[in-house]
Amino acid sequence: MNELGIIKSLWPKKGIDGKIIKKNRETSLIVPEITYFGQDGSLNNDSWAFKVGYAFRDALDIKYEERKINKEPYMVWTQGPHLNFKEGDMLHAKDGNRAVQVLSAKQMKWDSAKEEIYQGLVVYLEYVMSGDSLSKLKEHECTQMQFLQLLIDGQYDGSSVVKS
User: Fold this and answer.
1) pLDDT of residue 109
2) How far from the centroid of its chain's Cα atoms is residue 38's Cα?
3) What is the pLDDT of residues 114-161, one digit of tens each?
4) CB count, 10 Å around CB of 164?
């Protein structure tokens, strides 16, 4: 699955006439499917390197919306283009060896002046886990897209270490 490609496909683009064409939210999601049984929701993203649970729907810009076909309403999960991980978000690697915590962040949004998507910012701490304890490893700075790539693949290109 090309999760980052799905997000990028939703970014506004310039048309032939030079005008900005904004896309609607899509029903193609960056997660395989969303399920909810009893009180437990799941993004079913077992292939991701980090545990990104149901509670992170807003950070991933996934919403449950009403749509209509022939004036008949129905509910569907939709994907938007604006990632928004926030200060305090803590995610653990599935291998149990690492964790990351967002120290500060700026969400992705459309930059009207530049006529392009602003990919946001995430400053996060990387921890090494040993048993039940966490040891601070490094502080990093990246875009929201790079942070998503980290959560999916366990790494991203262009990592910027702020402090050790």
Assistant:
1) 94
2) 25
3) 888 999 999 999 999 988 899 999 999 999 999 999 999 999 876 655
4) 7
- Taking alpha carbons only, the member of 109, 137, 144, 96 closest to residue 123 is 144
- C-alpha distances (whole Å) from 156 to each of 32, 43, 141 are 21, 21, 11
- Select from 30, 89, 40 the least CA-distant residue to 63: 30
* Separation CA 149–CA 101 (nearest Å): 15
Tell me if 99 sits within 8 A of 138, measured CB to CB.
Answer: no
Cα–Cα dist 28/3, whole Å: 10
- Where the chain has pLDDT below 70, the residues are 1, 158-164
Element (H, E) at 112: none
Other CB atoms within 10 Å distance of the CB of residue 1: 14
User: Over the Cα atoms of the chain, what is R_g?
Assistant: 17
Q: Tokens representing 80?
A: 């938007």
Phi, psi for 42 (deg, rounded to 5)? -145, 140
Contacts of 131 (CB under 8 A, 6+ apart): none
Around Cβ 80, how many Cβ atoms within 10 Å? 19
Tokens 């002046």 map to which residue? Answer: 113
DSSP label at residue 34: -
